């Protein structure tokens, strides 16, 4: 099995393209760039000009898990991912391979209307609801 959360789920999809795993587990992740917040996608084209280090310094001052992860990431990695995500071809395998768990209040990646288990939470659903995610994955795997 291969899986991941957020960008890790996108990377899991790319790994699956190479390995053809029996299942792909996505926790608060997208299967295509159309599911990503449209404002974030528009801003991605400006990533070459964005003062990422300054933005990281400012966001690191807030007590928020998502902002803290952003503030601690490599600025070059952030810029590269921002450029690539807008042109990402997405998930190409059969939908029955997917196990998707998503937060209904996710502001980064839209909560899919169909094909996912929904939990009341935000983007970091795997961190805020670890037990529920574990139970849903076990249920899906049988």
Q: What share of residues is helical?
A: 40-55%
Quantity of strands, as a count: 4
Task: Write down the secondary-structure element order.
Answer: EHEHHHHEEHH
What is the averaged pLDDT score?
Answer: 88
Verbal overview:
The protein is of the alpha/beta class. It contains 7 helices and 4 strands, in the order βαβααααββαα. The chain has helices at 7-19, 38-44, 52-59, 65-71, 75-85, 125-128, 130-141; strands at residues 2-5, 24-27, 98-103, 117-119. A 4-stranded parallel sheet has the order 1-2-3-4, sandwiched between helices. α1 (7-19) links the parallel β1 (2-5) and β2 (24-27). α3 runs antiparallel to α4 (65-71). The longest helix has 13 residues, at 7-19.
Provide a short characterization of the protein structure.
The protein has 142 residues and is an alpha/beta fold. The protein has seven helices and four strands. A four-stranded parallel β-sheet has the order 1-2-3-4, with helices on both faces.
Topology, please?
Elements lengths: L1 E4 L1 H13 L4 E4 L10 H7 L7 H8 L5 H7 L3 H11 L12 E6 L13 E3 L5 H4 L1 H12 L1
Parallel strand pairs: 1-2, 2-3, 3-4
Helix pairs in contact: 3-4
What would the keywords be for this entry?
142 residues; alpha/beta; 4-stranded parallel β-sheet
């Amino acid at each position: 099995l291969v899986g991941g959360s957020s960008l890790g789920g996108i990377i899991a999809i790319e790994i699956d393209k190479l390995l053809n795993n029996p299942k792909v587990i996505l926790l608060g992740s997208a299967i295509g760039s159309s599911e990503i917040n449209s404002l974030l996608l528009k801003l991605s084209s400006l990533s070459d000009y964005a003062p990422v280090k300054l933005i990281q310094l400012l966001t690191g001052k807030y007590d928020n898990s998502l902002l803290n992860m952003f503030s601690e990431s490599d600025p070059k990695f952030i810029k590269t991912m921002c450029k690539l995500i807008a042109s990402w071809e997405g998930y190409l395998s059969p939908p029955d391979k997917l196990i998707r768990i998503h937060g209904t209040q996710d502001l980064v990646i839209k909560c899919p209307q169909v094909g996912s288990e929904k939990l009341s939470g935000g983007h970091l659903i795997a961190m805020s609801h670890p037990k529920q995610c574990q139970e849903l994955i076990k249920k899906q795997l049988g």
